[in-house]
């Protein structure tokens, strides 16, 4: 028969405790360790147990995840910036009409020496 403390636990937790016999001892040990410790400044719910960050494990991992996502976004923005900068650097003026355009690279990855924009190139082909 279960004690009154077990009856107040959520059903999923009771079921998991029945399946995993060592879990109850682990949770009780965590509860004893947390007595008297300061609470996490980020959430104010769990005790500080991550010595390097000064937060609870959950908040530490959430902050790491956020920092990683921000870093990925910054790297993506930097790649986009470099791509646009290189494209602008390649911009050239058409010898025929004087319009600025971004030349396409040939099969060797180089810009054509002709320096004629696509519209002038079409006119050459029609004539």
Notes on the structure:
There is one protein chain. The chain has 127 residues and is mainly α. It folds into 3 domains: 1-35, no CATH class; 37-88; 91-127, no CATH class. The protein is 55% helix and 3% strand. A hairpin with a 6-residue loop joins strand 1 (92-93) and strand 2 (100-101). The protein is rod-shaped and about 85 Å long. The chain starts with a helix and ends with a helix. 3% of the residues are buried. The mean pLDDT is 80.
Structure keywords:
single chain, about 130 residues, mainly alpha, 3 domains, two-stranded antiparallel ribbon, rod-shaped
Task: Give me the number of helical elements.
Answer: 5
Mean pLDDT: 80
Ranges where pLDDT stays below 50 over 5 or more residues in a row are none
Q: Main β-sheet: number of strands, strand sense, barrel status?
A: 2 strands, antiparallel
Shape: rod-shaped
Helical content band: 55-70%
Distance N terminus to C terminus?
Answer: 97 Å
The strands making up the biggest β-sheet line up spatially as 1-2
Order of helices and strands: HHHHEEH
Summarize, please.
The protein is mainly alpha-helical.
Helices and strands in order, then pairings?
Blueprint: H1 4-7, H2 11-19, H3 21-34, H4 57-90, E1 92-93, E2 100-101, H5 118-126
Antiparallel strand pairs: 1-2
Helix pairs in contact: 2-3
């Amino acid at each position: 028969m279960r004690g009154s403390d077990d009856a107040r636990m959520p059903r999923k937790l009771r079921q998991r405790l029945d399946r995993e016999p060592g879990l109850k001892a682990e949770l009780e040990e965590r509860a004893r360790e947390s007595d008297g410790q300061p609470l996490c400044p980020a959430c104010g719910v769990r005790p500080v147990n991550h010595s390097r960050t000064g937060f609870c494990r959950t908040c530490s991992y959430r902050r790491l995840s956020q920092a990683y996502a921000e870093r990925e976004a910054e790297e993506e923005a930097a790649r986009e910036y470099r791509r646009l900068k290189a494209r602008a650097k390649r911009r050239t003026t058409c010898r025929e009409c004087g319009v600025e355009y971004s030349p396409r690279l040939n099969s060797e990855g180089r810009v054509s020496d002709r320096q004629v924009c696509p519209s002038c190139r079409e006119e050459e082909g029609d004539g």
